[in-house]
Amino acid sequence: MDDFGRLIEQEVPRLRRYAHALVRDPERADDLVQDCLERAWRKSHLWVRRTNLRGWLMTILHNLYANAARKHSNSPTLVSLDDTTQAPGTPATQAEELNALAVREALQTLPAEQQQVLLLVGMEQMHYAEVAALLKIPIGTVMSRLFRARERMRVLLAESTRPTLRRVK
Amino acid sequence: MTEAAFRPSEEQLHAYVDGFLDRSLQGAVERFLAENPGEALRIEAYRQQNAALQALRALPESRPFTVPEFRARIRWSRLAVQVAAAVLLLAVGGGAGWWGRVLLAPREPLWVRLVDQAERAYQTFVPEVVHPVEVTRDQEQHLRTWLSKRLGTPVAVPVLTSHGYELVGGRLLPGDPGPAALFMYQDAQGSRLTLYVLAAPSKRRDTAFRYVQSGSLWICYWMGENIDFALTGEVDRDQIKDIAKTAYMQLNNMKLPSGGDW
To answer: Fewer Cβ neighbours under 10 Å: the N or C end of chain A?
Structure first.
C-alpha cells in the first residue's frame, strides 16, 4: 500500500497541470486533484490488478471534472480580478502569443474526450501511441480527436482574437 | 512521387506540429507549407496552440499534496465508521458477511457505493453453480412483484434476449441504502451478466450512463430519479453500454406515472 502512495505521489504534478489547465480557479483545480487522490486511494483495491496507474488517475480526474462541469453548467462563472486583467482584449503587442486565458476558455468548450487528447499531446507532449495506450483507445481515434480538437480551437481562437490574427505571413 | 506532388497527410502535418515527424519528411513538409500559405497559417495556429498549452504548464505554488494527509483523513473516517459498526454489531448480537462488509465500508460517494456493491454481488453469485438465484425465471411474475415490494418502488425485470442473454432469475440482497434486487442473465455460451438495482435514496436527476472498468469487468451504471442500477459483465464497453440502454428503457417504462400493476 505504501508503494501505491509513492506511485500516486509521482503523478501529482501531472494531475495538477491537467487540472489547472481545465479549471480556471487554482483553488478549485487543486480541490479537484485532492478529490481525485482521495478517490484513487479509496479505490486502490480496484487498481491492484492493473498496471496503468497514470491512465487510471487521469480518467478519475477527468470524470470528476466532467461531472462537476455538467453540474455547474447552469451557474454563472465567477471571474476573478486577476483573470480580467489579462482578458482577450489585450494590446496588439501580444498578437503573436495566444492568450492563455483565451486558450483555456476555448479548451473548456471542447467535448471531454477531445480535451483529454489535446492536453496530453499539446501540454504533456506525449506521443500519439502513448496517448492511445494510456486511454486504451486506438491510435486512429487519438488522431481524429486531435484533429477535431485543434481545428475547433483554431476557429474559436480566431473568433476571439480576430484582429490579432489578421497578419500576413 | 515527385517533390512537387507531395502532399502531406493530416497525420504528418500534426506530427510536424508536435515534433514527431520523421526527419526524412521534414524538408518536404516545409516546402509544402511554403507553397501553400493557407495550410501554413493553419499549421501555425496549431503550433501556437501548443505553445499556449505549454504556458499553462506553469503551476502556482500552492498547498502541498501530501498523500499521508488524505490517507490519514480516510483512515480516520473509516475508523469512525468501524467503531460505529462494531457498536451496532454488538448491539444486535453479532453478524458478519454482507452486513459487516456493508457497514464497514467508508462513506463514499453514492456511485462508488453502488458500483462496489454491484461488483461484489457479481463476484459472489456469478460463479455459483447450484444456487445462482433465489427465484428462477419460470416465476418471473412473482420475482417482479416480490422485489418491487421489497424495494418499495416498481422494478421491471428487463428482457435482454435481443443481446443474446436469457434471464436466469433474481434474488434479494441487503444493500446500501435499502434492499437491493439482483437479476442474473446468461448467454448461450454460459457467460453471465448481473443487474443490480436499488431504490434511489432521494429525488435527483442524472441523465448519463457512466462506466467503470474493474479488471476484466465493465460496470455500467445509472443513477436516476427512482432507481439506481448497475449492469456488470465481462464484456467490452460498447456491449455493456448497449445492454444497459436496453435495460434502462425497460426499467424506466415502469417509472411512468401510469401507476403499474405491481
So the answer is: C
Which amino acid is present at B205?
A: R
Query: Which of B37, B55, B71 is nearest residue A169 as measured by Cβ atoms?
Result: B37
CA distances from B244 to A113, A154, B215, B221, B251 (A): 21, 37, 19, 8, 10
C-alpha cell at A145: 480527436
Closest residue to B71, CB basis, from A5, A49, A121: A5
Give dist(CA B231, CA B108) in Å, integer: 20
Residue of A nearest to B41 (CA): A169
Q: Residue B120 belongs to what H/E stretch?
A: helix B110-125
Question: Could you read off the pLDDT tens digit of each residue along chain A, which spans 169 residues?
Answer: 457 777 777 788 888 888 888 887 777 888 888 888 878 877 777 776 556 788 888 888 888 887 776 665 544 333 333 333 333 333 333 434 567 778 888 888 898 889 989 999 998 888 999 889 888 889 999 999 999 999 999 999 887 755 544 444 4
From chain A, the residues in CB contact with B11 under 8 A are 143
For chain A, say whether B67 makes contact (Cβ under 8 Å). Answer: yes
Cis ω before B106 (30° cut-off from 0): no
B37 touches chain A (CB under 8 A): yes
Cell representation of residue A100: 492563455
What is the Cα–Cα distance from B79 to B64, expressed in whole angstroms? 25
CA distance B141 to B63: 58
Nearest CB neighbour to A26, from listed B40, B42, B62: B62
Query: Do A69 and A94 sit in the same domain of this protein?
Result: no
Domain B109-253: which CATH number of 3.30.200.100, 3.40.30.10, 3.30.240.20, 3.50.50.60: 3.30.200.100
Could you give the ipTM of this predicted complex?
Answer: 0.72
